[in-house]
């Protein structure tokens, strides 16, 4: 008479389809994230990202946040600010041109968002980066970018509200 399978084996066998489904979902989420990374200057509404990943809008937004730790809009905002900071550091392009290349339609919105995220205006960042010694040239570029990546675990509007001393709003808000 064959031995009956252990409870652990039965649980693992039942969990296998779920794990396979999770990997497929992660691949689809990565596909959408890679598309944002390839063209951060484009508009990326959740509806477009959901179509790319083959999910509903609500499921995509929730799954993206669960997989990567931040909502899709905040992820895109991080990439745009990173790219803008690199252009400010490495080129002599006018700030308006950098704003347009990185996906902002207005210089005012770009400047306000950039300041809210990084703590300094685009001009201040450019001046500070140019005043620094050239020692960063010896550090691998991926390490420099990771160290300068903006911290967007909190919505920009929440940072602005806390900076102004307003404590009447909710403690955590999401950027749509």
Describe what you observe in this structure.
The protein is mostly helical and 176 residues long. Helices cover 65% and strands 0% of the residues. It is built from nine helices and no strands. Helix 1 (7-38) packs across helix 2 (46-53), helix 2 packs across helix 3 and helix 4 (72-90) crosses helix 7 (122-131). The longest helix has 32 residues, at 7-38. It is globular.
Briefly characterize the structure.
Helices cover 65% and strands 0% of the residues.
Ordered list of secondary-structure elements with their pairings:
Blueprint (H helix, E strand, L loop, with lengths): L6 H32 L7 H8 L3 H12 L3 H19 L4 H7 L5 H12 L3 H10 L9 H7 L8 H8 L13
H/E element sequence:
HHHHHHHHH
- Assembly state of the chains shown: single chain
- Unreliable stretches (pLDDT < 50, length at least 5) are 10-15
Major sheet, described briefly?
none
Mean pLDDT: 81
| Shape assignment | globular
Number of helices: 9
The CA-CA distance between the termini, in Å, is 60 Å
**DSSP strand count:** 0
Residues in β-strands, percent: under 5%
Structural class: mainly alpha
Proportion in helices = 55-70%
């Amino acid at each position: 008479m064959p031995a009956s399978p252990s409870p652990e084996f039965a649980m693992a066998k039942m969990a296998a389809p779920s794990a396979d489904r999770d990997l497929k979902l992660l691949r689809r989420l990565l596909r959408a994230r890679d598309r944002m990374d390839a063209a951060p200057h484009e508009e990326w509404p959740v509806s477009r990202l959901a179509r790319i990943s083959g999910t509903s809008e609500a499921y995509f937004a929730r799954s993206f946040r669960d997989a990567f730790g931040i909502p899709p809009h905040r992820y895109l905002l991080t990439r745009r600010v990173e790219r803008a900071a690199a252009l400010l550091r490495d080129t002599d392009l006018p700030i308006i041109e950098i704003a347009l290349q990185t996906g902002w339609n207005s210089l005012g919105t770009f400047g306000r968002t950039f300041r809210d995220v990084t703590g300094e205006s685009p001009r201040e960042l450019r001046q500070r980066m140019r005043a620094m010694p050239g020692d960063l040239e010896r550090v691998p570029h991926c390490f420099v970018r990771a160290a300068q990546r903006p911290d967007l675990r909190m919505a920009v509007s929440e940072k602005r509200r806390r900076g102004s001393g307003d404590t009447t709003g909710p403690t955590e808000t999401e950027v749509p």
